[in-house]
């Protein structure tokens, strides 16, 4: 990545999607101070908790990095989340919602990088995120240059307008001779230790309190409802396989998750402490318990290239 230093014609060498979680915060630090890159941080304001916003403000002030925020219309976001949770595909709520709204803000980042002529998008995805069949270190150039990112079922369900569907990235709508960025996840290649990242973020003063570096505390509010729905349907937390893999690979602490995983499940099942977000999000989306349905086959929302890779 050091080869990218000074390559951005707009004054920035890379764009970093910033969620306010530990990984994106630490990535900002490493890119600026260890790699010497000119960084533009970018946030799509989709359901971020106040802790995440506090982390973002603290880190940007500490690191002196430029930042842009895009806040899509909340009516569309609520409509999208509500529809997805009522029409989940076979793998459940976390997969359904994450693999629709992640491409939404990934597409926003790609459009901004194109507009600003920034050659690299560097995302703070930890190893195993997103699904390895979707990305291993880098999104396929074909995915960025040729494939429509609009989830197929949203096109055919009749619930969304043409303008709403255009919120998803489609390179076919870009002008000829568009220069497309590369989209990479550096943590997939770097040595990664979840506890070390949490410690470094606190040590560097990128968060106000050390507990704000925890992925549990900075979690998206809607994620609590998604986990609740999947625990209801599958009887286990959908993130358990991901964190189990990190533990087996020595990238996360067994001692930490042996304590935190049951606590998270307890909060979700009983809707207490952070688990109260289950009830709050259901109220925000005007959903009832019986609205959380699995109705669609596996892959219903996957764009063509993703379906070809996974089936």
Short account of what is shown:
It contains 13 helices and 7 strands. With 311 residues, the chain is an alpha/beta fold.
Task: Write a structural description.
It is globular and about 55 Å long. It is 46% helix and 8% strand. The chain is α/β, with parallel strands linked by helices and 311 residues long. The longest helix is centred in the middle third of the chain and has 24 residues, at 93-116. It contains 13 helices and 7 strands. Helix 1 (22-34) runs parallel beside helix 2, helix 1 crosses helix 8 (194-203) and helix 9 packs across helix 12. It has a 5-stranded parallel beta sheet with strand order 3-2-1-5-6, with helices on both faces. The two termini are 33 Å apart. It has one domain (1-311): Rossmann fold (3-Layer(aba) Sandwich), CATH 3.40.50. It has helices spanning 22-34, 50-63, 74-86, 93-116, 141-146, 152-156, 162-165, 194-203, 221-234, 240-248, 254-270, 277-284, 304-310, and strands at 14-17, 39-44, 66-70, 88-89, 120-122, 182-184, 294-296.
């Amino acid at each position: 990545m050091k080869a990218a230093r000074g390559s951005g014609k707009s004054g920035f060498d890379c764009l970093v999607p910033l969620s306010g979680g530990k990984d994106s915060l630490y990535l900002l630090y490493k890119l600026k101070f260890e790699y010497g890159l000119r960084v533009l941080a970018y946030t799509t304001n989709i359901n971020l908790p106040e802790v995440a916003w506090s982390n973002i403000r603290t880190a940007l002030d500490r690191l002196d990095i430029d930042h842009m925020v895009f806040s899509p219309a909340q009516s569309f976001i609520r409509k999208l989340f509500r529809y997805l949770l009522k029409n989940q595909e076979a793998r459940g709520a976390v997969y359904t919602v994450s693999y629709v709204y992640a491409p939404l803000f990934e597409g926003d980042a790609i459009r901004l990088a194109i507009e600003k002529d920034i050659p690299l998008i560097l995302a703070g995805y930890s190893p195993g995120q997103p699904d390895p069949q979707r990305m291993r270190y880098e999104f396929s150039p074909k995915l960025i240059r040729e494939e429509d990112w609009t989830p197929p079922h949203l096109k055919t369900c009749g619930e969304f307008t043409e303008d709403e569907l255009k919120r998803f990235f489609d390179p076919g709508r870009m002008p000829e001779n568009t220069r497309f960025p590369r989209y990479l996840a550096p943590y997939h290649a770097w040595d990664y230790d979840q506890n070390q990242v949490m410690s470094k973020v606190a040590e560097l003063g990128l968060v106000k309190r050390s507990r704000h570096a925890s992925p549990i505390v900075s979690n998206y509010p809607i994620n609590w409802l998604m986990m609740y729905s999947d625990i209801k349907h599958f009887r286990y937390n959908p993130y358990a396989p991901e964190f189990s893999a990190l533990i087996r690979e020595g990238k996360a602490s067994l001692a930490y998750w042996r304590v935190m995983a049951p606590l998270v499940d307890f909060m979700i099942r009983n809707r207490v402490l952070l688990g109260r977000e289950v009830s709050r999000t259901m109220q925000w989306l005007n959903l009832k318990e019986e609205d959380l349905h699995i109705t669609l086959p596996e892959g219903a929302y996957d764009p063509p290239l993703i379906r070809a890779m996974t089936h």
